[in-house]
Amino acid sequence: MFPEYRELISQLKSNHPRFQSLFEKHNQLDHEISRLEGPSGTGYSNEVVRMKKEKLHIKDEIHKILKAENENTVK
């Protein structure tokens, strides 16, 4: 996720509590979705759809933080 921000992600995971929380929640959802879908990816349900939407929302929030922090370091 966001390889162009790899270094910034490492920094924020250790010193930005909101980012850290979002990052962990995104990873938890990713693992849970994979578990529910199964190895063939066919375990599709309303719960998986809900989780994917939540994961996408979290990813958007993470990206907003990354963009803002990146702008602050460039200045």
From TrEMBL:
Gene3D superfamilies in UniProt: 6.10.280.50
Pfam families on file: DUF465 (PF04325)
UniProt name for this protein: DUF465 domain-containing protein
Protein species of origin: Chania multitudinisentens RB-25
Taxonomic placement: Bacteria, Pseudomonadati, Pseudomonadota, Gammaproteobacteria, Enterobacterales
